[in-house]
Amino acid sequence: MRLASYRWQGIEGWGQVLEASIVPLADAWPCMRTALAAGVDAIAAAADGARARIPLEAVEWLPPVPRPDKILCVGLNYASHAGEAGRELPRYPSLFPRFADSFVGHGQAVVRPSCSEAFDYEGELGVVIGRPVRGVSAAEAMSCVAGYCCLAENSVRDFQRHSAQVTAGKNFERSGSIGPWIVTRDEIDSPADLRLVTRLNGQVVQDASVGDMLFDVPAIIAYVSTFTTLHPGDIIATGTPQGVGMSRNPPLWMAPGDVLDVEIAGVGLLRNPVVAFEHEVPA
């Protein structure tokens, strides 16, 4: 089952994605977070009884969970990426937070800031939490997963290096994207079997197996839940593989007019144009 959030005729909603339409389900639960808390089986039952449909071409895609309680990202989670960055392999997951307003949905423009040209792409697998969890073991961690999504985490590299903390370079407004939807966990046998491909203007720049991660999905959830409670709708970005722009000679930065694709077979295709920052506040 594919679940998405959207804006249609000026109103935010969410629902099940079919081939050419969305089944709106906001009458059952007001938002994706509350629906995920009810459980995927309950969502499927509500969708089976729904009659209304909205054409896909009529909606504006939002991040699947527009306002999650937490977005946590794992850095240096592929040995190949740690190597190209000149970093030692981490003993534990390297974590940093992202703010919800640093992400847009599928088809929406990601924004290169006016203060930097070092705007780098980072394709990743996103993991969406389905139930509250604290202190879960790796053996039980997958039971907490609602589903998966494509994620372009992206970074403003020079700001990332301003200090030992990467927060500034990782949280420019509208610099990353998530979507188009959540594919529920029952649709994916094992996230380790997934293939992640990132394309910039149609050219492959990253191509890796999710199974190459240093810390797999259960290990990440177990580690994170050691120190914080994960809630339904929380998102974990699991890290990017080698091929990022900063490690190329010369560096390959995203520029206005570019188009970035992150594709994970079985999960979806996330596509976003790149635009220059304008001083107007987005609606």
TrEMBL record:
InterPro entries listed in its UniProt record: FAH (IPR051121), Fumarylacetoacetase-like_C (IPR011234), Fumarylacetoacetase_C_sf (IPR036663)
Fumarylacetoacetase-like C-terminal domain mapped to chain residues: 70-275
Membrane spanning residue stretches: none
Reported cofactor(s): Mg(2+)
GO molecular function: hydrolase activity; isomerase activity; metal ion binding
Pfam families reported in the protein's UniProt record: FAA_hydrolase (PF01557)
Keywords assigned: Hydrolase, Metal-binding
GO BP annotations, alphabetical order: carboxylic acid metabolic process
PANTHER family xref list: FUMARYLACETOACETATE HYDROLASE DOMAIN-CONTAINING PROTEIN 2A, FUMARYLACETOACETATE HYDROLASE DOMAIN-CONTAINING PROTEIN 2A-RELATED
Family per record: Belongs to the FAH family.
UniProt-recorded name of the protein: Fumarylacetoacetate hydrolase family protein
